[in-house]
Design goal:
heterodimer, A: alpha/beta, Rossmann fold, six-stranded mixed β-sheet, four-stranded antiparallel β-sheet, B: mainly alpha, MetI-like fold, 10 helices, 0% strand
C-alpha cells in the first residue's frame, strides 16, 4: 500500500508532471544530476515550495496542510542546526514548539542521544561539532519528533568515507527500527545500492526510471545508461 | 596566567595614574581656579555628593535616559522586526527611515523645543530619537541576515510563525541588535547632557552649564568625570549582556 502518492507534480522551473508512489516503510533513493529536481521533490513533500498537482500521505490530501503539520522529518542538505542552541536544545526544539512537557522532552532527547551515540555532545554548540557530528545531531533533531516520513537530502555529502559508512549503517538501522517511510537523495551509486529498497532516477525534472536496485543497475533505460556513464 | 592578568592591569592602570599625577602637579604649579589640581576636584566631588546635589542631578539625567532609551529600544525593535518580516512594511518605511536616520539627534532640538516646549518630555523625546533609528536599522539588518533555510528547518520541526520568530529569528538577529544597542548606549548620555545644557534646568547638563556661569572648573571636571563613567558603564552593560546572550555560540 503506497504511503506517499504524488500526482502530476509540477513546479515553476523544475519538476514536470511527476507521478510517484512510495510504499509504507520503504526506503526510496532518489538519484540524479545537480539541478535534476531531487531537493525540489523533497521540498514538495515537506510543503516547503509551491507546486501544482496533489500530494497524498496515507490516502489523505496534504495540499492544504502547512509544513509544520505534515509530520515530516527533513534533514536539509546543509543541516542548518540553530547556531544559538546547543545539541540538547537543538534536538528539543520541535518538542518545545509542540508544547511537550519538560520531563517528557528530557526523556525523549536523552533516548535519541543514546540511540545515535551522541550523548557526549549534548552541551556543545554547532560551531564546536564536526561535519559527521552535525549530521547525527540533525538526524536526531528530525527523528525525535517521531515522524512517519523521513526526508534525507544528501545526508552524507562531504563526509570522509569512514564516517559516511557509519552514518549510512545507522540510517539503515533506524529506518528499519522506527518503521519510517524514507526518501533519500544521493549522487553516489554505492550508497544507493547499499541503502535502497527502490531507486528513482531523475533527469531535468522528470522521473526517468523507477525500480529495484537490480532493475536500475542491470537493466537501465537509455537515459539512465547515459546518466551512469556520465557519473562515472 | 596570573602574571598575564597583572601585566594587563598594570598596562591599564599605569597611564591613568601617570595622567592623574601629572594633573595634580600641574594644578599646583598653575595656581589658578581655571585649572584645579585633581585633589581639589575629588574634594568637590565629595562636597557635591554630601550635599545631595550630585545624586539629585545624576538621578534626573538617569531617569530621562532610562525612559527615553527604553521607549526608543522598544519602538526600534518593534519597527525593525515588522520591517524585517514584512516586505510591504519594509518598502513603505525604508525611504522615511533613510531620510530621517542621518539627521544628528541634536538637530531636532530647536524643532522639539517649539513643538513640545521646555519640559521633561523634551530630553526624553530626544533620547527616544537617538535610540530608535539605530535600533530599528540594526534589528532590520539582523533579521534580513537570517538565512531562510533556518526558518525552513524550524517549520519542518513543527514550529509556528510566532515560535520561529521568538526562538530562531530574533536570537539569530541578536548580535546585530546588540550592536545597535551598544553603539547608542554612550550616545544617549551625550544627548541628554546637551538637552539639559540648552533647555532643562535640572540634571548633570544643567549643573555643568551653571558651573560654567560661576567659573567653577572643579565642578565642570566632576561632571565630566561622572559622564565618562556613565557612558562607559552603559556601554559595558550592553557588552556584558551581549556576551551573556551570544558569547557561547558565536
Amino acid at each position: 500500500m503506497p504511503f506517499i502518492r504524488l500526482y502530476n507534480i509540477t513546479t515553476p522551473y523544475c519538476l514536470k508532471n511527476v507521478n510517484l508512489h512510495i510504499r509504507d516503510n520503504e526506503l526510496m533513493v532518489i538519484m540524479g544530476f545537480t539541478g535534476a529536481g531531487k531537493s525540489t521533490l523533497l521540498n514538495v513533500i515537506a510543503g516547503l515550495t509551491e507546486y501544482h498537482g496533489e500530494v497524498n500521505f496515507d490516502q489523505k490530501n496534504m495540499n492544504d496542510t502547512p509544513t509544520e503539520r505534515r509530520d515530516v522529518g527533513y534533514l536539509l542538505q546543509d543541516i542548518y542546526l540553530f547556531p544559538h542552541l546547543n545539541t540538547f536544545n537543538n534536538i528539543a526544539f520541535g518538542l518545545r514548539a509542540a508544547s511537550c512537557p519538560p520531563d517528557k522532552i528530557t526523556k525523549k532527547v536523552e533516548s535519541i542521544l543514546n540511540l545515535l551515540h551522541i550523548g557526549h555532545l549534548k552541551k556543545r554548540y554547532p560551531k564546536d561539532l564536526s561535519g559527521g557530528e552535525k549530521r547525527r545531531v540533525g538526524l536526531a533533531r528530525s527523528l525525535v519528533m517521531e515522524p512517519k516520513i523521513l526526508l534525507l537530502d544528501e545526508p552524507l555529502a562531504s563526509l570522509d568515507p569512514a564516517t559516511a559508512r557509519n552514518i549510512r549503517r545507522e540510517i539503515k538501522a533506524l529506518h528499519r527500527r522506527l518503521n519510517l517511510t524514507t526518501l533519500y537523495v544521493t549522487h553516489d551509486f554505492n550508497e544507493a545500492r547499499e541503502m535502497a529498497d527502490r531507486i528513482v532516477v531523475m533527469i531535468n525534472g522528470e522521473l526517468k526510471q523507477l525500480g529495484s536496485v537490480q532493475d536500475i543497475f542491470n537493466q537501465p533505460s537509455m537515459a539512465i545508461r547515459e546518466f551512469i556513464a556520465a557519473a562515472n | 596566567m596570573k602574571r598575564k592578568i597583572s601585566t594587563d592591569s598594570l598596562l591599564f592602570l599605569l597611564p591613568i595614574f601617570l595622567f592623574l599625577a601629572l594633573w595634580e602637579i600641574s594644578g599646583h604649579i598653575a595656581q589658578t581656579p581655571l585649572f584645579p589640581p585633581f585633589s581639589k576636584v575629588v574634594m568637590e566631588f565629595w562636597n557635591l555628593l554630601s550635599k545631595g546635589i550630585l545624586l539629585k542631578s545624576l538621578g534626573a539625567s538617569l531617569s530621562r535616559v532610562m525612559v527615553g532609551y527604553l521607549l526608543g529600544i522598544l519602538a526600534g525593535l518593534f519597527v525593525g522586526i515588522l520591517m524585517g518580516l514584512n516586505r510591504v512594511v519594509e518598502r513603505s518605511l525604508s525611504p522615511l527611515i533613510s531620510m530621517l536616520f542621518p539627521i544628528p539627534t541634536l538637530g531636532w532640538l530647536p524643532l522639539l523645543m517649539l513643538w513640545i516646549g521646555i519640559n521633561e518630555a523634551l530630553p526624553v523625546t530626544l533620547i527616544f530619537i537617538c535610540a530608535f533609528f539605530p535600533v530599528a536599522y540594526n534589528t532590520l539588518t539582523g533579521i534580513k541576515g537570517v538565512n531562510g533555510e533556518y526558518i525552513k528547518a524550524a517549520r519542518t520541526l513543527g514550529a509556528s510563525t510566532w515560535y520561529t520568530l521568538w526562538h530562531v529569528i530574533i536570537p539569530m538577529a541578536s548580535p546585530s541588535i546588540f550592536t545597535g544597542l551598544r553603539l547608542e548606549a554612550g550616545m544617549v548620555w551625550r544627548t541628554v547632557i546637551a538637552a539639559e545644557m540648552f533647555a532643562i534646568s535640572t540634571g548633570i547638563g544643567s549643573l555643568l552649564i551653571n558651573a560654567e556661569t560661576l567659573i567653577r572648573v572643579d565642578i565642570i571636571l566632576v561632571c565630566l568625570i561622572l559622564l565618562s563613567l556613565m557612558c562607559s558603564s552603559f556601554e559595558r552593560i550592553f557588552i556584558w549582556l551581549e556576551h551573556r546572550t551570544t558569547g557561547a555560540w558565536r
